[in-house]
Amino acid sequence: MNALAEQHAGAAAEHRITAIEVTHHRLALQPPFHASWDTKPRVHFDATIVRVRADSGLVGFGSGDLMVGFAGHEPLFVGEDALALERHYRVLANIDFHYGRCWPLDLALWDLAGKITGQPCWKLLGGLAGRVRAYASSGTLRDPGAMAECGERMLAQGFPALKIRFHRGDWRDDIRALEAVRARVGGRLALLVDCNQGWRMPWDTAAPWSLKDAIAVARELERLDVHWMEEPLHRADHAGLRALRQATGVRIAGGEMTRQLSEFRDLIAGGCLDVVQPDAALVGGVTGLRRVALMAQEHFLTFTPHTWTNGMGVTANAHLTGGLCDAPWLEYPYDPPEWGLERRDFMMTEPLRVDAGGWIDLGNAPGFGYALNEELLARTRCG
């Protein structure tokens, strides 16, 4: 073996996966958080943390979905090259088919890859931009006056756009809240609307809107100069989404809980969406979603991930977006006092913040650049 081959073999051996650890944590919420998409008040916030250890001593961290069904599959990764990301993605895709969504492991592997190479993930993913601009994503259903005040606060904090949730029972009540925001902020703030029709919590049996309902809402959103209309129909109603997209000038957004990459192919090629919104912490990981991002760009669509998990998930999606995409904004879950950084990012030593202009600076720290609040994680550990 020549010197170069020996050096390569040694480098590979230094970064073999030695262990994968999955822990679950629960932060009590008092007062409860009344999420617009959930008919039950949330009295706690759960976080799953994945640690991937390499024989070099480096550790990658990821967070997101619950890793249901992963237990027992650790031997499929232990002993493998930590940088074999495509190989690991294929195994995770198989697990996804047979069991559950275990994509936080992919995020932890990318964090580890960044630490191995000494590069931030946004550079490994393409290095397009070292920062992304955030839009404030509200989560609660406020009355019109309170919603207008929320819009004014977000504008004062430098956000260029605000997402307003619909789900008040009658969409006309939702429109009244939207009208109040537009009257207060005028054209100084872009407004986005999440209709919350694409999926339901397990206990919520309400039917989604029909196409004609969605068209009626879209006409109101056009009048109020709304930038996009998110999840206006059931996620499987491809024909309805396509017809709605043709019937309105408002951009149609969706895909946050779509599970298979093949479904994204059909949504994109089928002309169903203007804005594609999968979440790396929930679907496909960074490895899978970079495929979807490139597919969206080749069809001249906007790719900007859903990010309503926690600060670690937002960070991972921000690196994917900054490194590879030309998204106008990235979702930033932020709706104080009900949903502030101390709740969203409790597992991190420092929350993911935006600057006075609404920008997230991705930095140059290796990997995703976050660190775990081990003391608080120890106190909140459950299961």
What can you see in these coordinates?
The chain has 383 residues and is α/β, with parallel strands linked by helices. Helix content is 37%, strand content 19%. The strands form 2 sheets. Strands 4, 5, 6, 7, 8, 9, 10, 11 and 12 form a 9-stranded mixed sheet that branches. The protein has a 4-stranded antiparallel sheet with strand order 3-2-1-13. α2 packs antiparallel against α3 (104-117) and α7 packs parallel to α8 (238-247). The model is unreliable at 3-12 (pLDDT under 50).
Write the layout of secondary structure elements.
Layout (H helix, E strand, L loop, with lengths): L2 H11 L3 E17 L8 E13 L4 E6 L20 H14 L5 H14 L3 H4 L6 E7 L6 H13 L4 E5 L5 H15 L4 E5 L16 H13 L4 E3 L7 H10 L3 E4 L6 H9 L5 E2 L8 H14 L3 E2 L7 H14 L5 E4 L7 H4 L14 E3 L12 H7 E2 L1
Helix pairs in contact: 2-3, 5-6, 7-8, 9-10, 10-11
Portion in helices: 25-40%
Q: What's the β-strand tally?
A: 13
List low-pLDDT spans: 3-12
Q: Please tell me the overall pLDDT.
A: 95
Find the structural class using helix and strand composition: alpha/beta
What best-fitting shape do the alpha-carbon axes yield? globular
Number of helices: 13
Please provide the ordered H/E string of secondary-structure elements: HEEEHHHEHEHEHEHEHEHEHEHEHE
End-to-end separation: 49 Å
Rg of Cα set: 21 Å
Q: Main sheet?
A: 9 strands, mixed
Strand content: 15-25%
